[in-house]
Amino acid sequence: MVSLLVDSELLEVQLAPLERRLALRKDPLRIPRVAIGRVQLTDDPFTWIRGVRAPGTHVPNRLAYGTWKSVFGDDFLAVRPGRPGVVLDLADGEEFQRVVLSTRHGLALARALQGDEEREAGEVTELT
């Protein structure tokens, strides 16, 4: 299951060992918070898949992990069935144009990414 770590400057998406193998990705996905343009909640993350898998693993309506390439740019997906999700639109120049994740913590992630002036520098919020 995807773990999300949020601090004052960075969102880190950590994949479980099996998910890393399915996504063909060794390292966690690190996204600067200033690069996140929009956060959208979704009941069905599979509807947000666009383009072709390259590289990654896809079993239609069962799972989608890895990179998807389209005319709009590269997307990173970590999607499983029966779970709500979150869609992150990222700024130009980032590794991915969009990140689509299955997580029950989409609302908590959106709140954590909103202005959090009270958060101390270096404090990390973990959403698992």
Précis, in short:
With 128 residues, this protein is mainly beta.
Uncertain runs = none
Helix content: 10-25%
Shape: globular
- Biggest sheet strand line-up: 4-8-9-7-6-5
Number-wise, the strands total 10
Keywords:
single chain; 128 residues; mainly beta; 6-stranded mixed β-sheet; 4-stranded antiparallel β-sheet; 2 helices; 10 strands; globular
Descriptive account of the structure:
- The protein is mainly β.
- The protein has one domain.
- It contains 2 helices and 10 strands.
- It has helices at 17-23, 106-113, and strands at residues 3-6, 10-14, 29-32, 36-42, 52-59, 63-70, 73-79, 85-90, 98-102, 125-127.
- The strands form 2 sheets. It has a 6-stranded mixed sheet with strand order 4-8-9-7-6-5, covered by helices on one side.
- The longest helix has 8 residues, at 106-113.
- The model has no long low-confidence stretch (mean pLDDT 90).
Secondary-structure topology with pairs:
Blueprint: E1 3-6, E2 10-14, H1 17-23, E3 29-32, E4 36-42, E5 52-59, E6 63-70, E7 73-79, E8 85-90, E9 98-102, H2 106-113, E10 125-127
Parallel strand pairs: 7-9
Antiparallel strand pairs: 1-2, 1-10, 2-3, 4-8, 5-6, 6-7, 8-9
